[in-house]
Amino acid sequence: MTYITVALNGLIAVGAYFMALRVIPRFKDMFIKANLFGKDLCKRDKKEIPESLGVLVGCVFLVAMFLFIPVPFTLEEAAAMDVETGGKPATFPHEEFVELIVALLSICCMILLGFADDVLDLRWRHKLLLPTIATLPLLMVYYVNYNSTTIIMPKFVRGLFGYSLDIGVLYYVYMGMLAVFCTNAINILAGINGLEVGQSLIVAASILIFNAIELCLGHQVDGHKFSVYLMLPFLAVSLALWKYNKYPSQVFVGDTFCYFAGMTFAVVGILGHFSKTLILFFLPQIINFLYSIPQLFKFVPCPRHRLPKYDPQTDLLHISTTEFRKDELNILGKLMVTVLKTFKLITWQEMPDGRVITNNFTLINFVLVVFGPVHERVVTQMLMGVQVLCSIVAFVIRYPLASYVYDT
Hints:
The chain contains 15 helices and eleven strands. The protein is mainly alpha-helical. The chain has a domain at 3-283. The strands form five sheets. It has a three-stranded antiparallel sheet. A two-stranded antiparallel ribbon has the order 1-2. A two-stranded antiparallel ribbon has the order 3-4. It is an enzyme of class 2 (transferase). It is a multi-pass membrane protein.
């Protein structure tokens, strides 16, 4: 019955894809009339583009999942016959049912909070707090159903900690931080046509490939089935959105999609029991976060927008810059820029009046530092190529290399 359930999930995902394709163009003008639009700053005409369309595909995803809810429980309950009770149907899987409902609740909360961010332009401290709140129902269900806080230790530290270590409440802190990271990591690697949806598509496809491999191997079957049930509709609606968001964008996805995508990934990673592997699929986002730390934590001045600069004469993107005086930086700020400058990871121009001009610390700007001025479409393709390459690296780490660190 598992294959039938997945097949029906796939059919619902296909329906969600075509529904999203029809809904998006019909709501574009409505969003503009509601003043939910932005100007595409990387185009000559800078025309108005409807924004926050991520809320539409999020709603289509939820509708698809609501339609799917009865499928696995009806089919699998009918198929599961309890021999001990004389062939009567097995007990209804309440735990799995609650997991799915709470997963959708957390995702729904993040869609709502993401849309609120787009409309109200929330501060960064709220962006860190909101995913934490939305994850609480998820952590509560994990506590009730599993409450497993024991981690298997790598071989090289077992002499100190033993084979496993129970870290207690710290495991819940880790899962909460994972949700915060996933929702914001996509959000800070964004700003050019198709990038937010493009990276999410690659991460979702990577997760599905991983789920398929693990199901074939018979590992954590229930967890990976749960992941597939969420990832197929997510992939479908994201593909529909990407059609309108890729270069040249007809719609902008807004923070809503970033939160929706990030929370969906966090949900399957936590309840599917493969959070460490999920982090591997976020390697570009981790690199971008580490590269951005000096500005995100205000060690180096950070402008409100760090998008590349657009040159209308050449139709190319150039690095965007920030200016400061080196003597205004604290010790950590000076250390960070010195390390980045030494390894040629940033541009550095010292002016006669003591000012320093350097690029903004984002992966998008770093691509422009390395390759020079590039067309917007090419930058997106480069970054999506990096995402694919990092997914390949993740699979190499997860399978051939993992055996050197863990038993299996």
